[in-house]
Amino acid sequence: MATLGALDRKLLRDLREMRGQAVAIIFILVAGVAAYVSMASVMDTLQHTLDRYYEEYAFGDGFATVRRAPEEVAERLGTTPGIVQVQTRVVAMVNLEIAGYDDQVAGLMVSVPGDRQPELNRLFLRTGSLPAAGRENEVLLNEVFAEAHGLCAGDTLAAVINGRRRTLQVTGVALSPEHLMQVQPGVLFPDPERFGVLWINRSALAAALDMRGAFNDVSFRLAPKADVRTVIDQVDLLLAPYGGQGAYARADQGSHRMITEEFNQLRGMAAVLPSIFLAIAAFLLNIVIARVVSLQREQIGVLKAFGYRDRAIGWHYVKLVLSITCVGTVIGMALGVWAGRALGTVYLEFFRFPYLEYALNPPVVVTAVLLTSGAALIGVMRAVRQAILLPPAEAMRPAPPSLYRQTLVERLGLRRFLAQPSRMILRNIERRPFRALFAVTGVACACAILVMGLFFVDSIDHVVHFQYGIAQREDLMVSFFEPAPTAALYELANLPGVQYAEPFRSVPVRLRRGHRSYQTGIEGIPANAYLRRVIDTELEPVPIPAEGIVLTERLATMLDARLGDEVVVEVLEGRRRTTRVPVSGLTQQYLGLAVYMEIEALGRLVNDGQALSGVYLLVDERYEDTLMQALRRRPRIAGILSQERAIRAYFDHAANFLLVYTLVLSLFAGIIAFGVVYNNVRVSLSERERELASLRVLGFTRGEIAYILLGESVLLTLLSIPLGIVIGSLGSDAYMKALETDMYTIPVVLTRGTYATAASVVLVATLISALIVRSRLNRLDLIAVLKTRE
Amino acid sequence: MAQEVIFRARGLSKIYDMGEVKVQALRQVDLELFAHEMVVFLGASGSGKSTLVNILGGLDTATAGEVLYRDRDLTRADDRELTEYRRHHVGFVFQFYNLIPSLTARENVAIVTEIACQPMTPAEALELVGLGGRMDHFPAQLSGGEQQRVAIARAIAKRPAVLLCDEPTGALDSQTGVIVLEALETINHDLGTTTAIITHNVVQAEIAGRIIHLKDGEIARIETNTRRTPARELQW
Q1: Residues A492-532: pLDDT tens digits?
Q2: Which positions in chain A touch B171 (Cβ < 8 Å)?
Q3: Where are the alpha helices (DSSP H) in A607-642?
Q4: How buried is residue A500: exposed, middle or buried, by Cβ count under 10 Å (0-12/13-18/19+)?
Q5: DSSP A52-112
Q6: How much is the average pLDDT of A182-200?
């Protein structure tokens, strides 16, 4: 038919009539679809970009560090079955001095072949060039580090390499797939001010470290179907004579591991939030459509009386709803693409990808469309079925007066405490218990989303307080290049400004239990440790057992080890002993997956006497500067770091994300609460217009009828707040479980402030929608309402 | 002369199950309606006249007995068949017009002509009830009498064999009511549509050829009216 049919005209006019509610639904759909599309497309974009970046820049599949191996070993590695390409390097931890920056700065210096890109782990040059062939003092800087100090090509900095200070000239700034997350070994979080990666000509670094014709680091690529475990074992065997410290696969590479964790978190967020929104949008659609249909019950009867088929009537309402969802989905999609690009740009900064290719995969679009229209259609079907099932003669009669009865509260004998209007509110809620339940659930969901978004900040405070107030109380961690004798402890303890010194020993190990394994380090601490303490599940410090190892609970779970079980410990340095050690304790720790052992027991395990890897210091603030200078002058000290600073720096960075995230979340939750309450009140208003007008005719004031209508919404909102808090708490637990990574667990810390904020947002949304409806109520045309048929 | 039978009802009963009480709306009704006749169902509120007409129109189903429309058994028809029946053979006029508020007069008629086989145009139908000049008004812009005439135009636009009217003047004052009855007369006369009108108004019954009196769900008597009074002469 060329022109618009009468039924379609009705559709358009109905749509215009219900535009207020349509807009409320569109808002929610837009929020849901935009959240989903932006999150999902960003995930696709990031994964796509990462894969391409790794491929184009030949990121290694496996890595190994040795003390010193002659270059010929590389050839033997290259002929190992499963390995297709090998890249040897010389790497060194160095101390850096940057003009105008006083803190200790550590650097990881990595060799590059003179004047050309390495075969594996190639560099993306952001600016400048590679160090020129034969130039001994030219370095290329990792971008985050260069930016943190405002360094660029032509600038200089000093490095202490193997005890000798030399001035280096910056030739440019680069990115590497290997250091997407630039993290100092032994530290959990990136701190670009105090740690950086530098690339220098191999000849220069080899000369400084006496590594001519040798290497101390190697990465390799695997054949497509090679078994990683087998290859790693062979590499370990091959490198053991040269002081191999355990080869590891890409999955265990620091930067990659962190990126993977970040991606997993993002994926968790991409799944949880949008599904909540879509579910609520579907619920709202359901309510509104049920209402439209119930108001049009007589019209449906007439259409049926004229011989319209059920399918035609159903299709009419399906079109009505689909036109709303289409608008919502399209706007949401557009907004989602926009937000996805914006988020992509933020993550580009965060992850330091050289480029970002925005990808909106067809499955994302299809899923969004199917989810929204599917949810809408289910809502419509149910409501339309009800109307269609009625015989037309019955549908055309006004709906029979509903059966009201005394409510539970009244039957309990509390009747005399309730005035008539309050009784009307209670009876109305009791008459439509499912609708009341839906409204309560909807608002409770909004409240729950708020709780889930708000607790984060408190939780992070809690973690930092726990980790630094209870478990790790040192001001500085000083680490040595080589394990040092016990005398080093006393030497440092006697420096001015040191209030207390405590030794530690860290040993790289691989823990195995059954088919499970985890590569990490065991940290040895004294039995009566004061600075680094083992914390039990009650959050109390406990003495470290004289024998056996203490695992963090999450690591124990990962290894499927319980208290008393034995774990195989492969030491990855020195004599590389493999021993079975009992798990003698479990500890609670939010950050990292540490393994502790009594320091002397650890010495016996490694079998090389009582050496120290470093010392924890408690420092008098007044002497901090002089102490730092004194420490820096000591050649055996590899690093001085304040872990707390690194973590603060990371969380400051993360806090920006969280702030935006929390704001967006509150906005979305506000929209949901508003949408649910507004729709609910509008439904009641159109159903009870006659009743309310009659009351006005009988002499009730506007305020009194507003109380009857709006009191219900406020009461339902008040009921939904405690429910929302419960759902929010449970949701927060589940959410944090989903976000848990190797690096950290975030405990759920719920404060009264969080509850109060969540409740306020929901209440304000309720009051706003009540005010809007109240203004409609004031315009109620009494005569017109009463003149039409009963 | 032998008149063509349009409806034949035998032993028609209808019981409404209201949960705790059962209401018998029709008891064993036997009835015949003939082609082209104008018949009035007269009776007090609750006499069963609406129930009877709803069953004849396929809007409701009987609890017992049978109804034939020509040779079609309405009592055994399923919902789909009843829909087809209403779509092509019956026109309805209700006491409360039941116009669709969001559609204009013309569109309210179009909603039926769009699904009918050989309908007149909405304009023709509206001309027939004297509303040629108000076709683009919305129901809210029309008086009660005008709304009811739109409803009549809507009912007859598809040229139904039967026009069923449930208290068509029930919500109107007598002057307007006369205009509506005149419109029904015109339809019956010009188009030959079998017309059944429900009323509780004895005066209005004068326009019919036969008057069927109902009481307590039964046909009390059937009166043949040899001297039909034209609607414009009625007064109540």
Answers
A1: 899 888 999 999 998 888 899 988 888 888 989 998 888 88
A2: 789
A3: 624-632
A4: middle
A5: HHHHHTT--SEEEEEEEEETHHHHHHHTSTTEEEEEEE-EEEEEEE-TT--S-EEEEEEEE
A6: 81
Strand partners, A110: A91, A199
B84 vs A307, A312, A394: nearest CB? A307
Dihedral pair phi/psi, residue A434, rounded to 5°: -70, -40
More confident residue, A467 or A129: A129
What's this model's pTM, rounded to 2 decimal places? 0.66
Q: Which has the higher per-residue pLDDT, A87 or A535?
A: A87
Where do the domains of chain A lie? 64-254, 435-471+644-790, 476-641
Average pLDDT in the B92-105 region?
A: 82
Instruction: Kindly report, residue by residue over A253-296, the tens digit of the pLDDT.
Output: 888 988 887 787 777 766 666 666 666 666 666 666 666 667 77
Residues of A with CB under 8 A from a CB of B: 1, 5-7, 9-10, 13-14, 17, 298-299, 301-310, 312, 391-394, 396, 789
Nearest CB to A17: which of B102, B111, B112? B102
As given in the structure block, the two tokens for residue A463 are: 């973690």
If you search the block for the tokens 């015989």, which residue do you land on? A391
- Contact residues, chain B to chain A, C-beta under 8 Å: 54, 57, 59-61, 79-80, 83-88, 92, 94, 96, 98, 100, 102-103, 107-108, 110-112, 114-115, 154, 171
Q: Which residue has the higher pLDDT, B35 or A636?
A: B35
Among chain A residues, the shortest Cα distance to B144 is held by A788
Interchain CB distance below 8 Å, B103 and A13: yes
- Sequence-distant (≥ 6) Cβ neighbours of residue A522 within 8 angstroms: A506, A507, A509, A549, A569, A595, A596, A597, A602, A605
pLDDT tens readout for residues A127-165: 999 998 888 899 999 999 999 899 989 999 999 888 788
**Homologous superfamily of B37-58+88-233:** P-loop containing nucleotide triphosphate hydrolases (3.40.50.300)
Structure confidence by residue, pLDDT tens digits, A363-408:
888 888 887 788 778 777 777 777 777 777 777 765 555 556 666 6
CA distance A301 to A288: 20
pLDDT in tens, A637-659: 877 777 666 666 666 666 666 66
Strands (E), B38-110: 38-43, 64-69, 72-73, 90-93
Compute the nearest-CA separation of B144 from chain A (Å): 11
The pLDDT of residue A1: 40
What pLDDT, on the 0 to 100 scale, is given for residue A2?
46
Q: Find chain B residues with C-beta within 8 A of A14's C-beta.
A: 102
Residue with tokens 């009461």: A715
Residue A723 in contact with residue A440, Cβ under 8 Å?
yes
Closest CB from A10, A304, A305 relative to B100: A10
CB pairs under 8 A between A and B: 74
Which of A641, A639, A636 has its CA nearest to residue A163?
A636
Using CB atoms, which residue from A307, A393, A789 is nearest to B96? A789
CB pair distance less than 8 Å for A306 and B111: yes
**Dihedral angle over CA of B74, B79, B84, B89, nearest 10:** 40
Q: Which two three-digit tokens encode residue B114?
A: 């769009």
| CB nearest A9 (choices: B60, B103, B154) | B103
The stretch A120-124 carries a mean pLDDT of: 94
For CA atoms B199, B200, B203, B206, give the dihedral sign: positive
Neighboring chain A residues of B100 at a CB cutoff of 8 Å: 10, 299, 302
CA distance A12 to chain B (A): 9
Which of A204-213, A283-292, A332-341, A548-557 is predicted least confidently?
Answer: A283-292
